[in-house]
Design goal:
Structural class: alpha+beta
Number of strands: 23
Distance between the termini: 14 Å
Shape: globular
CATH superfamily of the largest domain: Aminohydrolase, N-terminal nucleophile (Ntn) domain
Largest sheet: 7 strands, antiparallel
Helix content: 25-40%
Strand order of the largest sheet: 3-2-4-1-10-9-11
Number of domains: 2
Bound molecules: adenosine monophosphate
CATH class of the largest domain: Alpha Beta
Radius of gyration: 22 Å
Length: about 475
């Protein structure tokens, strides 16, 4: 059977998950938690609840506040248990099928599932499942897990989920809701974050601790790499069903992705970003008058750079907060427009000055090129760009949306050429050892790196089975693949 194709659809896998068990207002808390996690995905969100008898779901495209800010929507989601999800993705009415949590009726009851990460053997598994007669409803890799649960020959729902998770490869930090149980699972490498918290008698699982702060919950601990946490009437229990692997948490979460007020793997993200800026100032000092961040992502590193260098920190670029992140715009044309909509350089601060401009990363180079032109147009005499991460030379296959390698500026050009293209007087990136120092390691040990840093080094810890089989290099929709073949 040839699957339906949504033209131009390209779901991306950057997401956040939230789960709560044992609270009479589970949906309202999930909505607040998802709102705090909005930075991890702004295109769609969903919540599924269980009220002791049946499941209730609401999913839509848009921002969490717009979807769940309406009390009538929350009232239609009764129950003491809920899971939720926010995602990045392109728009289009039909993409509602891809909005998570996914829900399915199984022989044992209901299963809702919400996933952050990306599976690296999903295309292979999907092809096999389709040959075996499975009928897919969405284009997400997450649905592969649902089908594997349905096919498992084990008895209990949790055992069946674990059985399915043993077959998939890649990065997953996921939450699932069964009839009266919440399950949270993290892949053995622990690539994406997942934390366990408590609010009175209720248990909570979320992508980041900022989702606990918003509802006054306390953080208990990280869900550990390879751990499966089961929460039900009996309380909380922990399973370790996978082959242990050396943990490789995503270092880019510290650079850009996580919210600065979150504690991730025991480290405060804001503090790490400031230390990144300090390392950068030590490694790449500049003769300049002021340090200016590209807001918001460059702010903590610029503060660190200013503190270390002794140069004054100034907000020479002001960001308009009422436009989404640059990356979510679907076409290059709009993306270019987006950068101008979003930032304005302040002539009174920058005019005649030698400026150290700090941003977290250069991906395609679009943002930096525009910002530098803007800073120069505002009268800056010199622009010295300092990037708070090593050059992004490789695509991510584990859940962070990056373009294919050919579009990464640092994969195409050397430092000198990049400086010319971006239009700066000097350009420097943080070294990979500097980044490791900022997260508290002495250096990167190439034999045993502590983190997943594949986007900077090309060292992919988890096998890229689909990619090895010549599948398209993006972690995009499975339908797009069918479309191409
Ligand atoms: P670019 O314009 O393609 O070079 O994008 C670089 C900018 O996008 C940086 O200022 C980052 O703050 C931001 N950025 C980096 N990685 C991502 C990502 N995976 N998703 C969204 N934004 C990103």
């Amino acid at each position: 059977m040839s699957p339906m194709v949504d033209a131009g659809e390209a779901p991306r896998e950057e997401c956040a998950v939230f789960a709560i068990y044992g609270h009479p207002e589970a949906a309202a808390h999930a909505a607040l938690g998802l709102h705090a996690l909005q930075h991890r995905g702004q295109e769609a969100a969903g919540i599924v609840t269980f009220d002791g008898r049946q499941f209730h779901a609401h999913r839509a495209t848009g921002l969490v506040g717009d979807i769940f800010g309406n009390p009538r929507v929350i009232a239609a989601l009764p129950g003491h248990a809920a899971i939720g999800h926010t995602r990045y993705s392109t728009t289009g009415a039909s993409m509602l099928r891809n909005v998570q949590p996914l829900y399915a009726e199984m022989g044992f009851g209901g299963l809702a599932i919400a996933h952050n990460g990306n599976l690296t053997n999903a295309r292979m598994l999907r092809r096999w499942l389709v040959e075996e007669g499975a009928i897919f409803q969405s284009t997400t890799d997450t649905e592969v897990i649902v089908h594997l649960v349905a096919r498992s020959r084990l008895r209990g729902p949790v055992e069946r989920l674990v059985d399915a998770l043993r077959i998939v490869e890649g990065a997953f930090s996921l939450v699932a809701l069964f009839d009266d149980a919440v399950v949270a699972a993290r892949d053995p490498w622990g690539v994406r974050p997942l934390v366990l918290g408590r609010l009175g008698e209720a248990w909570i699982v979320a992508s980041e601790t900022c989702a606990f702060d918003i509802i006054g919950a306390e953080c208990v601990r990280d869900v550990e790499p390879g751990e499966v946490v089961v929460i039900d009437r009996e309380g909380v229990r922990s399973l370790r069903p996978f082959l242990p692997r050396p943990p490789r948490f995503c270092i880019f979460e510290y650079v850009y992705f996580a919210r600065p007020d979150s504690i991730v793997e025991g480290r405060g993200v804001y503090e790490v970003r400031k230390r990144i800026g300090m390392e950068l100032a030590r490694e790449a000092p500049a003769e300049a008058d002021l340090v200016v961040p590209v807001p918001d992502s460059g702010v903590p590193a610029a503060i660190g750079y200013a503190q270390q260098s002794g140069l004054p920190f100034e907000l020479g670029i002001i960001r308009n907060h009422y436009v989404g992140r640059t990356f979510i715009e679907p076409s290059d044309h709009i993306r270019h427009l987006g950068v101008r909509l979003k930032h304005n350089a302040d002539r009174r601060t920058l005019g005649g000055r030698r400026v150290v401009l700090v941003d977290d990363s250069i991906v395609r180079g679009t943002t930096s090129t525009k910002i530098v032109a803007m800073v120069r147009a505002a009268g800056a005499r010199e622009v010295h760009m300092r990037i708070a991460s090593p050059p992004t030379t490789h695509s991510c296959f584990y859940g962070v949306d990056t373009p294919e390698r050919e579009k990464l500026l640092a994969a195409r050009y050397d430092l000198e050429a990049m400086a010319r293209i971006v239009g700066v007087d000097s350009l420097a990136f943080l070294s990979i050892d500097g980044l490791y120092r900022a997260v508290g390691e002495p250096r990167r040990d190439p034999a045993r790196p502590r983190f997943c840093d594949a986007c900077f080094t090309g060292d992919y810890p988890i096998r890229l089975r689909d990619h090895e089989r010549g599948e398209p290099a993006r972690q995009f929709s499975l339908l797009a693949e069918e479309e191409a073949s």
